[in-house]
């Protein structure tokens, strides 16, 4: 959170000179974004700078890296799929690509020599406009060449290493979304951004048995490893129905909504690499569209925020003075080491050094306030408990990390801390997370047995075999007709 505003102000200073340029390159720009695109330069053509904006809006960097050299692992149930070098290197990158090659990659998941796995979000990019692909292609030619292969290469076990199988998968799952009727122009722009460029659904829409989007549950929330990408439909109780359009804009621009929500983990990355750079009217379009999608109620309800129950800052000097907090924390640590099970002492001893004695964090050290966050107010404590069990990796290289506590704390202690923060900082009237809940959550996030893990893929294989059989039969029929 603070790191985003810090980043923004650093960029503002560093990039002031190119701010005027960014304005020139915008499509229909009326207002200047808070953050200026670092990869837009006055030396480049308007087309290239437009491409740089598309690359940001489509968040290519999230997977291909800040320098586009690839090698990032995308975890899938079949194993890790690594992104590739997409700099214009002729040997290791896409230096030999024609514009049509790029179009086939984005729209069909087809690289010149092989089919791609949908870890590359082509099911979403398939709807990308010609003019945007044209600009993106021009921009990718200007990226510095890196003549290096990514450190890791994808090596999936048989039969998933047969890339041609993706033809069958694509037949069922591409494109991943359909246009909605009755939208105004702004909302249509929002739909294009959400579905095709920003591919929000790759995280927020749950998957069906073939691992494609479950279209009926569009944007209603999905598990992402230890993370949970929440319901962002306008449902009042389980979605973001209580958010105003301005709330959505603020969250996507800064990664936080004061005392309401925080963009941690994968969402923090989406904000850091992509949404913070979007033009004001594009963020407004997204917000307006998210208000127009069907509300879907799920069983993961979020209690409405009750501001009167949130803590007040201990006092300005303590909240902002690390030394003043030290005494409180030291006392709590002594108490816990002497066997105290007081939830407050446990919180202070384990979490207080980063999130502060009052939950308002340590802005100076970039540790986030946790007061009021939606992750504390969910009926299901899973999101919060997973964070405590597994920690949180910061969303940029320089952001601090939250350590994992699964080895350090007992299930009772984690339950006790979870209840403490849900009530004291989340403002809930009560919370009854038990040690059994912690054990259940730890067990579900542990390694799954082979068949369950591969069930989705086995289903795809089943379907592909079925399609092959049908084609075989049709051919046989045609042949037999010819003979007569
Ligand atoms: C969610 C992660 C993700 C995002 C976002 C993403 N990619 Fe990819 N991309 C991948 C992965 C993983 C592969 C390799 C897939 C494979 O091995 O089948 C890939 C492969 C490619 C390839 C094929 C390279 C080759 O010839 O082998 C190109 C080109 C490409 N991406 C361009 C882009 C562009 C341009 C963007 C932004 C518009 C983008 N990618 C966004 C993950 C991503
Ligand atoms: C060493 C510092 C540190 C400690 C100790 C720590 N955290 Fe964190 N915590 C962080 C950081 C850093 C983030 C933000 C990570 C990011 O940028 O995504 C965070 C994020 C969070 C969030 C917000 C997550 C969200 O996205 O909604 C919660 C809730 C949280 N921590 C709870 C706790 C609890 C409970 C404990 C004690 C068991 C704890 N933390 C201990 C550093 C810490
Ligand atoms: C890489 C995966 C990923 C992508 C892409 C992504 N999100 Fe998220 N999103 C998440 C996760 C995970 C969270 C939970 C963050 C947390 O609790 O700290 C989240 C949280 C949110 C929230 C806060 C919800 C709440 O109740 O607190 C909103 C709003 C949101 N995302 C909107 C979007 C929009 C709009 C897009 C596309 C522009 C998008 N997200 C793209 C993973 C993603």
UniProtKB/TrEMBL annotation:
Q: Name one Pfam family in it.
A: Cytochrom_C
The Cytochrome c domain covers 46-144, 185-294, 338-425
Q: Any signal peptide, and if so, which residues?
A: 1-22
For the ligand (heme c 1), the binding residues are 60, 63-64
Provide the binding site for heme c 2: 200, 203-204
The record ties this protein, via InterPro entries, to: Cyt_c-like_dom (IPR009056), Cyt_c-like_dom_sf (IPR036909), Cyt_C_IC (IPR008168), Cytochrome_c-type_DH (IPR051459), Membr-bd_ADH_cyt_c (IPR014353)
UniProt: heme c 3 binding residues:
351, 354-355
Instruction: Determine the domain of life of the protein's source.
Output: Bacteria
Which GO MF terms are attached to this record? electron transfer activity; heme binding; iron ion binding; oxidoreductase activity, acting on CH-OH group of donors
- Which metal ions or organic cofactors does this protein require, according to UniProt? heme c
Q: What is this protein called?
A: Cytochrome c alcohol dehydrogenase subunit
Organism of this sequence: Psychrobacter cryohalolentis (strain ATCC BAA-1226 / DSM 17306 / VKM B-2378 / K5)
């Amino acid at each position: 959170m603070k790191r985003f505003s810090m980043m923004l102000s650093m960029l503002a200073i560093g990039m002031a000179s190119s701010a005027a340029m960014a304005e020139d390159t915008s499509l229909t720009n009326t207002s200047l974004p808070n953050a200026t695109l670092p990869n837009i330069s006055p030396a480049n053509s308007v087309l290239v700078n437009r491409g740089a904006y598309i690359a940001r809006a489509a968040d290519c960097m999230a997977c291909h890296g800040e320098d586009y050299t690839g090698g990032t692992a995308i975890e899938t149930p079949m194993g890790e799929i690594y992104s590739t070098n997409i700099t214009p290197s002729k040997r290791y990158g896409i230096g030999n690509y024609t514009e049509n090659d790029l179009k086939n990659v984005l729209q069909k998941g087809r690289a010149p020599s092989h089919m791609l796995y949908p870890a590359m979000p082509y099911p979403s990019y398939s709807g990308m406009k010609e003019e945007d692909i044209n600009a993106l292609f021009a921009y990718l030619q200007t990226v510095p060449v890196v003549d290096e292969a990514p450190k890791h290469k994808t090596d999936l076990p048989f039969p998933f290493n047969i890339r041609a199988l993706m033809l069958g998968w694509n037949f069922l799952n591409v494109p991943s979304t359909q246009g909605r009727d009755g939208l105004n122009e702004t909302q249509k722009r929002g739909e294009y951004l959400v579905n095709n460029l920003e591919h929000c659904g790759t995280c927020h829409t749950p998957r069906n048995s073939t691992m494609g989007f479950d279209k009926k549950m569009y944007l209603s929330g999905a598990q992402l490893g230890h993370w949970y990408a929440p319901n962002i439909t306008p449902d009042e109780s389980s979605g973001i129905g209580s958010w105003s359009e301005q709330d959505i804009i603020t969250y996507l621009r800064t990664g936080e909504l004061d005392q309401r929500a925080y963009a941690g983990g994968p969402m923090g990355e989406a904000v850091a690499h992509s949404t913070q750079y979007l033009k004001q009217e594009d963020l407004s379009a997204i917000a307006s569209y998210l208000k127009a999608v069907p509300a879907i109620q799920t069983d993961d309800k979020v209690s409405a925020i009750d501001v009167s129950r949130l803590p007040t800052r201990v006092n300005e000097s303590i909240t902002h003075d690390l030394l003043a907090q030290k005494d409180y924390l030291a006392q709590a640590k002594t108490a816990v080491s002497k066997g105290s099970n007081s939830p407050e002492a446990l919180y202070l001893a384990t979490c207080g050094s980063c999130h502060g004695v009052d939950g308002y964090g340590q802005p100076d050290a970039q540790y986030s306030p946790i007061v009021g966050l939606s992750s504390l107010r969910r009926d299901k404590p899973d999101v919060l408990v997973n964070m405590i069990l597994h920690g949180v990796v910061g969303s940029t290289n320089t952001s601090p990390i939250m350590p994992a506590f699964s080895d350090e704390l007992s299930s009772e202690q984690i339950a006790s801390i979870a209840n403490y923060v849900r009530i004291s900082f989340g403002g809930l009237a009560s919370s009854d997370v038990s040690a059994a809940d912690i054990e259940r959550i730890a067990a579900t996030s542990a390694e799954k047995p082979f068949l369950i893990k591969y069930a989705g893929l086995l289903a795809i294989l089943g379907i592909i075999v079925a399609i092959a059989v049908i084609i075989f039969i049709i051919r046989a029929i045609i042949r037999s007709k010819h003979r007569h």
